[in-house]
């Protein structure tokens, strides 16, 4: 069986790219299709595969300006030649599922989220765009939404990375989706080995993630400015300068950290702060694998990755005041969170578990679509 994996762009190695990496392990002969490819930022496993890019990759500074070429991506996808493939897996968060396939090809879409800048977070992106973009964006997004909804009909079978996303797939596309949680590299993280008697944990809290507006690190900074407590923030992104401006003396922005240092910061912190609303969110599970609880905003993917009172605390309102109350609640009884239970919870989302569930879902996709089965001639004659 010839397999093609279509991913929106391969320019940073994050949650979506970890899914692609796991798919590459499952289908070692698969070809990858994408708009833009920056091999030095990808894993060795992804780089082992043949990668075909659309014409977007040949446009000026595409590796940096790729998002500005969004209006051209639908037509770019439709130029890809996928005639020789029996199975096409589109990894959808940006434009990916709109490819054209043969009638006999099974097209499975693994949806990380319907394009949030076109749907669930359109108003946020519009309000935070420059003046020129605000004039053009409504027209561009109107057409993109039409195309995005239309191309849902090109997919034979949907999978979603969470129940939260499955609801969005139903709402925006009118399609049901089977939930397969994404892989978390839980083996990269582990609780700190402590000497007999138990060494004291470092007195700081931790935020991890790309520094973009919807992750709401500004709420964490305002809360910890008021608390006067130490907060370390790991990550880089367009909001870094704005966050540094509001950060008080107890807040430290550490920028990018490699895997080794990230693991150390996880294991030594009091707890991880997760103030944004994510479609799924891998950070709470990386924290759990490190034996640390999470204080998370109680909406979106956190409802599926955080067990209140067992692996973390959920706060109800996306405000500094609500977060402060949750931090105070944690500090009253931090010992209620047991490392072994946290690690056990995280392992339910391991890479091997993802592969197992993806294979089962793929089997269901083939079963439902009855691929390559001839039309029964008696039934056909009866219809005629």
In percent, how helical is the residue content? 25-40%
Overall morphology: globular
Q: What are the low-pLDDT stretches, counting only 5+ consecutive residues below 50?
A: 372-384
| CATH fold-type name of the largest domain | Rossmann fold
For the biggest sheet, the summary is: 7 strands, parallel
- CATH H level, superfamily name of the largest domain: Glycogen Phosphorylase B
Rounded to the nearest angstrom, the distance between the terminal CA atoms is: 34 Å
Strand order of the largest sheet: 3-2-1-4-5-6-7
**SSE string:** EHEHEHHEEHHEHEEHEHEHEHEHEHHHH
Query: How many structurally independent domains?
Result: 2
Gyration radius (Cα, Å) is 22 Å
SS field, number of helical segments:
16
| pLDDT averaged over residues | 91
β-strand amount:
5-15%
Count all strands and give the number.
Answer: 13
- CATH class designation of the largest domain: Alpha Beta
Derived structural class = alpha/beta
Architecture of the largest domain, according to CATH?
Answer: 3-Layer(aba) Sandwich
């Amino acid at each position: 069986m010839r397999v093609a994996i279509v991913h929106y762009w391969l320019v940073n190695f994050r949650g979506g790219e970890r899914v692609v990496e796991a798919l590459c392990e499952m289908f070692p002969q698969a070809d990858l299709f994408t708009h833009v490819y920056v091999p030095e930022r990808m894993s060795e496993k992804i780089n082992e595969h043949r990668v075909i890019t659309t014409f977007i990759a040949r446009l000026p500074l595409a590796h940096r300006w790729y998002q500005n070429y969004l209006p051209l991506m639908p037509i770019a996808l439709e130029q890809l030649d996928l005639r020789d493939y029996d199975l096409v897996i589109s990894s959808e968060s940006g434009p990916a599922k709109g490819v054209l396939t043969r009638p006999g090809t099974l097209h499975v879409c693994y949806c990380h989220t319907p394009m949030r800048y076109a749907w669930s977070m359109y108003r946020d992106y519009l309000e935070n765009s420059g003046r020129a973009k605000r004039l053009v964006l409504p027209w561009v997004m109107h057409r993109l939404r039409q195309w995005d909804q239309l191309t849902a009909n090109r997919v034979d079978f949907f999978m979603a990375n969470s129940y939260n996303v499955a609801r969005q797939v139903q709402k925006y596309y009118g399609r049901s989706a089977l939930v397969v949680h994404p892989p978390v590299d839980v083996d990269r993280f582990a609780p700190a080995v402590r000497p007999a008697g138990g060494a004291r944990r470092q007195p700081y809290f931790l935020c991890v993630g790309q520094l973009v507006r919807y992750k709401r690190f500004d709420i964490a900074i305002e809360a910890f400015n008021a608390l006067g407590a130490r907060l370390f923030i790991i990550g880089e992104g367009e909001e870094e300068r704005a966050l540094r401006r509001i950060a008080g003396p107890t807040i430290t922005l550490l920028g990018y950290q490699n895997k080794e240092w990230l693991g150390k910061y996880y294991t030594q912190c009091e707890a991880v702060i997760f103030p944004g609303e994510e479609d799924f969110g891998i950070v709470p599970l990386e924290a759990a694998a490190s034996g640390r609880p999470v204080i998370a905003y109680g909406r979106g993917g956190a409802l599926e990755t955080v067990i209140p009172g067992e692996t973390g605390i959920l706060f109800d309102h996306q405000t500094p005041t609500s977060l402060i109350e949750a931090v105070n609640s944690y500090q009253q009884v931090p010992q209620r969170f047991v490392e072994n239970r946290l690690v056990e919870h995280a392992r339910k989302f391991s890479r091997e578990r993802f592969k197992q569930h993806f294979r089962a879902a793929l089997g269901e996709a083939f079963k439902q679509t009855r691929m390559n089965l001839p039309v029964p001639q008696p039934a056909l004659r009866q219809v005629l």
